[in-house]
Write a structure and sequence with these properties.
This protein folds into two domains: 7-65 and 133-292, Rossmann fold (3-Layer(aba) Sandwich), CATH 3.40.50.300; 74-119, Alpha-Beta Plaits (2-Layer Sandwich). The chain has helices at 20-32, 51-55, 82-86, 111-115, 154-164, 182-188, 202-218, 234-242, 255-262, 267-270, 274-292, and strands spanning 7-12, 39-43, 58-72, 92-94, 99-101, 121-136, 139-146, 171-175, 193-198, 222-229, 247-252. The chain is built from eleven helices and eleven strands. With 293 residues, the protein is an alpha/beta fold. The strands form two sheets. Strands 3-6-7-2-8-1-9-10-11 form a nine-stranded mixed beta sheet, sandwiched between helices. The longest helix is centred in the C-terminal third of the chain and has 19 residues, at 274-292. It binds iron/sulfur cluster (2 copies).
Length: 293
Amino acid sequence: MTNRDSLKIAVASGKGGTGKTTVATALALSLAEDTSKPILFLDCDVEAPNAHLFLKPQFREEKPVEILIPEVNEELCTYCGKCAEVCQFQAIAVLSQRVLVFPQLCHGCGSCTMICPTNAIHETPKTIGVLQKGTAGEIEFARGVMDIGEPMAVPIIRQLKKWVAPLKPKITIVDSPPGTSCPVVESIRGSDFLLLVTEPTPFGLHDLKLAYQVAKELQIPAGVVINRENGVYEELDEFCAQVNLPVLMRIPFQRVIAEGIAKGENLLNILPEMSEDFQNTMDVIKTLVKKGK
Ligand code: SF4
Ligand code: SF4
């Protein structure tokens, strides 16, 4: 949970391609019109960050993300097997006269180093991505970018959140990865509100149900944005009503939006009048957060 003067809103979706980043960036831009409240935009979709395409930030600072990988000095090793036993990720294997480390599986947790009775393990840093910070107009912008082929988004998201903590913005908008896996949980953890973006299709509803379960597990109040609405899809509204998930905004399906987004334009450039809708949505979110406290 953020401190009392600040608000952290995570924007998520149970699946990719629903317009999550479109909504997150439009929300940030609409709020940035009030320059008295500093806004931080955090792109936590570290496997495929693309919010920069809509907000066009200037990056001024960057920092590599490293994890510590074990290296075994076999002259000190007794092949006792304790390191392999303690590793939850099968990243280290002990054979009769050899220890194998699989860096792609290692989470850099340090457990093997701690448990080794002969101090045969030391740790070496391995770069798995980069953090970048800058500004997009009035918006502070930060993101993590995972190196191609690296499997671990969570340490990058965790370090990104730690890196920006001293900024203390009034409002933080988190663009979370799509889906409901560990990187999503890490991105939205500590948020005051979860905005779930969905589309009115059976697939959209299926994935919204999963995303809603995550919000429930983490006890984060949530609301829904229905994107590309083209007529009413009753099952979606029925589900939202049934679980008391407020529908905060409906973005109609419009060709002009799809064409603009495809060219990398942000939603508020395409339809400036939507800024007020996002500001109104923010007012409702604030009320819901207050109610939940
Ligand atoms: S715990 Fe240490 S001594 Fe035992 S197998 Fe692993 S590296 Fe070797
Ligand atoms: S650092 Fe952690 S994840 Fe990596 S090999 Fe050791 S115990 Fe396994």
